[in-house]
Write a structure and sequence with these properties.
With 145 residues, the chain is mainly alpha-helical. It has a domain of 85 residues: Winged helix-like DNA-binding domain superfamily/Winged helix DNA-binding domain (Arc Repressor Mutant, subunit A), CATH 1.10.10. Helices cover 63% and strands 8% of the residues. It contains six helices and three strands. The chain has a three-stranded antiparallel beta sheet. A hairpin with a 7-residue loop joins β2 and β3. Pfam families: MarR_2.
Length: 145
Amino acid sequence: MKPHGTLGFEIRELSILIGRFIEKEELGTDLAKLKGPQAWALGFLSENLDREIYQKDLEKELSIRKPTASRLVDRMEKNGFITTVVSAKDKRFKRIIITEKALENMKKVEKFVTNLEDRLTQNIPEEELRSFIDTIGKLKKNIQS
């Protein structure tokens, strides 16, 4: 079996190329710590300032398992991007709160993500992109079943 041309291989290769693009871009001292899931998690947190967010919400949003989410939360807290406080509703859970430091840097993150998206989607018609996103959604649904 030749791996090139198979769906799984092509998705993996694209993921690697995106990772390399992210690594070579200069984000500044604080933002350089925002590799992969940390940036996505902060984006999710900044879009949901009006609700209480817990680790289980990050697990669901980022499609990650509990141990991965736990390490992610620990790393983000260590880097000063979030704080955690015991929930007033349920003492077993810790609420995740984005810090001012993270909020101040979100414009840089958003600019970076926009640049990445522009780079990824250049020369691809809007209709093809919509179809691709729909197809990716179906692929994810198939693999989760």
